[in-house]
Input
Amino acid sequence: MAELKKACVVASCMRTPSVREVTFQMLEPTTLPRRAGQYILLHARGPDWAVVKRAYSIASAPHDPTRFRLCVKHIPGGPASTYIHSLVEGSEMRFSGPWGKFVVDDEVQELNLVATGTGMSAVGALLEDELARGRARRVTLCWGLRNEADVFRLHELEAMAAARPRFRFTLALSRPTEGWSGFRGRVTDLLFRDGEPRGLYYLSGNGAMIAEAEEMLRSTGLSEASIRKEVFFTPGQIRVPLSEGQKRQANRRRPGTVVVGLGLHAGAGAEEILAAVETTLISCNLRLGDVRNFATNAARSDEPSLHALTRDTGVPVEFYLPPELERDQSCGAIPSLCEVVARLSAGSTELLVPKRKTGSVTVAIAAVASPLSVGGSAHAGRTP
Ligand SMILES: Cc1cc2nc3c(=O)[nH]c(=O)nc-3n(C[C@H](O)[C@H](O)[C@H](O)COP(=O)(O)OP(=O)(O)OC[C@H]3O[C@@H](n4cnc5c(N)ncnc54)[C@H](O)[C@@H]3O)c2cc1C
Output
């Protein structure tokens, strides 16, 4: 495992309603030698105190190795960005790095930097580093944001462009207000503004923009080697908290032939849940020993009754995030939550028992797609 480094916060401020800029001072070791465009792998603490590892591009140029800056958008419910936004002056954080190959080796070819949102961190460091060097090549920066509320660093970038004729900067707003007099549209609309693309392209931020820009550039014959990418995220990508992902993997190795999906009102009691589960199991000749795991909605992960259920039965509960639930398109009628989570967790489309409601609890049972064979029989423990 890479050696963990330690740094502490020396300044922190909100640049927009959702983007925080945090400056760190290196503690252990006292310097962070790096190249412009690289990132660190932050070891954040999630709400359940589990370690969550996320990449963050270093937004400052590497001139001062004792300090570095991050620029982080807060993703509601996102453990790492929430952690960074909670740091105050003096807070310490651990990370590994620097990592990454989003660096500039060529000193001659025209440099085209294209970013969306906080993708500006990575290209901003490249820009700062490049302009500090006495080179003649042209540098362009096209930065895409949604609207005026998302804009930061504007005056700084405009001042850089005014002071250095070789640098040109365009801000593209995709959904500006009526009063916006700058460029309206997406950054990809700017790619061919000056004719055929030439030189090097550094694309950073939203994975969808990067894929589109790459395709557009490649279609003109630009070589793969001329395009560098730093994908911060892919829209629609679902990320399960590390601890939940590990728990799910461990559950796949548990014996049991069925998954019990649960839907419950907040505050439902442990006894009521257990009674509903047992009644439903008995109705199809199953018993608790046949249950590989329970599954429910992540919004219920704080319910003490579910923790009591695991404690009393020895059967773990898996928690599913809303985007994972939205993926379930397997039946024509609108499925119930308990059915969706049961099928998702079981990895199967087959429901042994569709939704049954008992008081404030709904239960559905799905057969595990590839049950672990225990004692030579995948159905060991099943009540005759
Ligand atoms: C090399 C690299 C460098 C990165 N540098 C930065 C950086 O400098 N600043 C920064 O804010 N983020 C950066 N990211 C994204 C960062 O690693 C996390 O993914 C992000 O902060 C969300 O983490 P989370 O734990 O809070 O939420 P998660 O639970 O991990 O994510 C929740 C959802 O948010 C989406 N998401 C992630 N980032 C964004 C975003 N910026 N805008 C909209 N949706 C998003 C994810 O696709 C996911 O679906 C970088 C990613 C990579 C791979």
